[in-house]
Amino acid sequence: MARAGLDKETIIRKAADLANEAGFERITLKLLADSLNVQPPSLYNHIKGIDDLQRELMLYGWRQLDEKMTQAAVCVSGYDALEAVCRSFYEYATENSGIFNAMLWYNKFQNDEADKATEKLFSLIYRIFSTLNISKENCDHLIRTYRSFLEGFALLVNNRAFGNPVSIEESFQISLQVLIAGTKTFEGKD
Amino acid sequence: MARAGLDKETIIRKAADLANEAGFERITLKLLADSLNVQPPSLYNHIKGIDDLQRELMLYGWRQLDEKMTQAAVCVSGYDALEAVCRSFYEYATENSGIFNAMLWYNKFQNDEADKATEKLFSLIYRIFSTLNISKENCDHLIRTYRSFLEGFALLVNNRAFGNPVSIEESFQISLQVLIAGTKTFEGKD
DNA sequence: TCCAATAAACTAATTTAATTAGTATTATAA
DNA sequence: TTATAATACTAATTAAATTAGTTTATTGGA
Q: Which of A20, A77, A96, B156 stands the most exposed, by the fewest C-beta atoms within 10 Å?
């Protein structure tokens, strides 16, 4: 039988596609194997199992997001950079809802690789905040504020939990205004 | 064989306990049945299956949270009420991480019952905002801002995604300060 | 009180997914 | 060219969800 030419990268990419199309929770090794025209056990030559697959998908997402956010911060500074970076997070999370779902469970796989994938991202945000005349200590807290809002907002959008006809784009814009106005009250504090 | 005296309520409560103790994703009908000293098929006399169980757990959570938040809003007003209500959300979500996890997937079961469970909650928040001299339109957006932040923050706390030793309690406090300061810039607007 | 109907539990069987064991075949590199 | 390693396979196992069909307890009239 002809070799399928599988490798880890191919498998993760296909899983990412399936996650975005059908939903993260609906990925099974059977479905994945079918999409790749192999039998489920063949996948075990490249991944350790479904937990490993999910972990790889999580890492894949954070690495892609890091790339995208870093690009968004090029040639902008201050609050403009902050806004650009937030917006790129939102775009990635909503355009890749399946992968984003895998990323949410970040915690469960806590390890060096995961830390490495998010470390660059953190230092990017950190660099932006540090140009805003905000104390290091408040920086740490504000990063959590923004991260919470962004993950929460994207999650709710992806889950179509915002029921009424109010514009989601406008809500995002106003939310950023609120956060930024609030952040400004911390300039020079401490 | 003696009847176990099962009913839907008993099953949901036990599932809620298990979700908080072992994690929402780890609930199986086998585990649940064992905890209730029955065989898995017996559960089907009261619930339609595992999807139905998860949906019921989601509703159970939103009803409990509604109750708790309403209590938190008694005898306070304005931004104090807003803060009290946010804090009670946070407490519930972190003290009931398993149930909160079920609540997150709210969307997937969108129906009248789910809407009814969150409707009261929405109108509570709405009433609070409407005392703050904020336009109806901005109200709609700000509710999304707060909701996103609160769900995101609780999710991250529950998943132990805030790695560093910075105080989580302090981050929550500062986040609320940021949101409230930002919200104040919308007073009288529009 | 008795009995029919209903509800609640059961056992047994089915389906589907994840995983493991063991085998065969292809590619590669000495 | 041949040994080795990698890759895919089939077959079997385990575990969970679910369905079918049966039994037994409860309960509300006659």
A: A77
